[in-house]
Amino acid sequence: MFINGFIYIVGETLNGLYRNRWMCITSTGVVMVTLLMLGLFMVVNLNVQHITEAVKEQVEMVVYIEEDADRATVEELGRALSGHEEVTAVAYVSREEHMGRLQQQLGGMLEGYDSGLENPLLASFEVKTADPEAVVGLASEFEAYPGVAAVFYGRGYVEDLFALTRVVQIVGLALMAGLAITAVFLVSHTIKLTVLMRQREITIMKYVGATNWFIRWPFFLEGLLMGFVGAVLPLGILHYLYRIFAQWIAANELMFINLLPLQAVISELALYLVPLGVILGILGSTMSMGRFLRV
Amino acid sequence: MIEAKNLGMRYGRGKQLALEDINFFIDRNEFVFFVGSSGAGKSTLMKLIIRELKPTEGLLKVFNRDVGRLPRHRLPYLRRNIGMVFQDFRLMEERTVQDNVAFAMIVTGSSRREIKRRVPGVLSMVGLEGKAKAKITDLSGGEQQRVGVARAIINRPAMILADEPTGNLDPGTALDIMNLLHTVNLRGTTVLVATHNREIVDRFKKRVLYLDNGRLVGDEQKGIYTNVH
Ligand SMILES: Nc1ncnc2c1ncn2[C@@H]1O[C@H](COP(=O)(O)OP(=O)(O)OP(=O)(O)O)[C@@H](O)[C@H]1O
Ligand SMILES: [Mg+2]
What we know:
The complex is a heterodimer of chains A (295) and B (229).
Chain A: H1 2-19, H2 21-58, E1 61-65, H3 71-83, E2 87-93, H4 95-105, E3 124-129, H5 135-143, E4 148-152, H6 155-197, H7 199-208, H8 212-251, H9 262-288
Antiparallel strand pairs in A: 1-3, 1-4, 2-3
Helix pairs in contact in A: 1-8, 2-6, 2-8, 2-9, 6-8, 6-9, 8-9
Chain B: E1 2-10, E2 17-26, E3 31-35, H1 42-49, E4 57-62, E5 65-66, H2 75-79, E6 82-86, H3 97-106, H4 112-125, H5 141-153, E7 159-163, H6 171-186, E8 190-194, H7 198-204, E9 207-212, E10 215-220
Parallel strand pairs in B: 3-8, 3-9, 6-7, 7-8
Antiparallel strand pairs in B: 1-2, 1-4, 4-5, 9-10
Helix pairs in contact in B: 3-4, 3-5, 4-5, 5-6
């Protein structure tokens, strides 16, 4: 009963794929390229996100205090900053502490600096915020507070990082949408060819009373298989590339590029790529199921 | 088994009726010839019976069901009860005789065991016992049509529709095939044959429905092929 029909369907699926192997390889290839791009993009994105998270943690604002601000103004400013709802932490750094840090950072270079000379540095508040992306707006707000000389945050760096990830996302997504449409089109075209090749069998099937789904299964499976293979191959390729890249990073002691672990990345990718490939394949098959495949 | 009431069929808007006001009743186990000149509407009538086409006018009941209202998903089950035989055989030419016959069982969900059990019996009934493994292209036209008949009866349908089954065969072979269909009929299957073959119609003396230009102009028991105009 069912088993026999199942064997027939699987046989026809493979037969159809084989008889159309070049178109089939092309379609699978395009699915593969689409998903490989998506995969690469996701790998980069996941890691950029991971690194940005780390950077965001470090983003803080430095609110420099006017040199001639009196004690009351400074205290009032400190209270205003700590009381702001977006602010999570405020630390006062005196001019002397700044100088100490500078000397530490520059090693022995300020050796000859005479502490009797006037310290040119300003005292400051170091401010941490709840939402790192809010620093831009907060900075201009704080600049208007009395006693504030200037506000600094990793200005260019933070803005660029956010902007760059967004541009990469938009361009990448547009490119992939185009590729995905091409992939669906090619898959459906390939299946249409096998449908045409099997026209005679299909007609006979209709006359002897095969059900719609019996007629359609082989074509449905063809699409599904192309999509699935087109998703699994990029996973393999990405697995390989990621390992090589991670090894290269390790070998060059670029440990500050804090990559996500291989297995975590690949399983996250599989979660998206395999269903997506299958969906592309199924879309392709359904598009090819015209009048011919209806009883 | 088949009942037509004021049945009409128009292929498209503005086209003239391919069938018009057809009325007849065919009982189980009958053997009926549909005759009429080319374009009379014989094939159209057969396509309506298997619901390849939907009637545009009137009523057509097959197995006591209004086929015009049969939902799409029921069509396969209607067709499993009707075996089709074609003028051009419609076989899978690159495959063997037994594959062609078994195909009808596979796609309707029979078990392997059932197929193995039934195919040889049907092949011997149509006189092809030695040819089970022969490729279709290695057979004569008459043998190919025997495969066609075997495929039509393998699922034990209640009815056989044959549209010009002898159209591509020489007179002797045509007679063989018609005898085969007659045997099938004697075993309890309703058989409808559309044909131009005057000799055969006259010889069998079965019921004849005459179609002319889309109209049913004659319905005779033990009829002969006459040109009714
Ligand atoms: N698919 C179609 N579209 C439009 N008109 C059609 C179609 N099929 C048949 N017809 C028209 O319907 C009429 C009946 O055709 P049909 O094929 O039923 O005749 P027939 O009796 O089987 O003829 P023949 O003996 O040549 O097979 C003809 O006028 C034909 O032109
Ligand atoms: Mg005809």
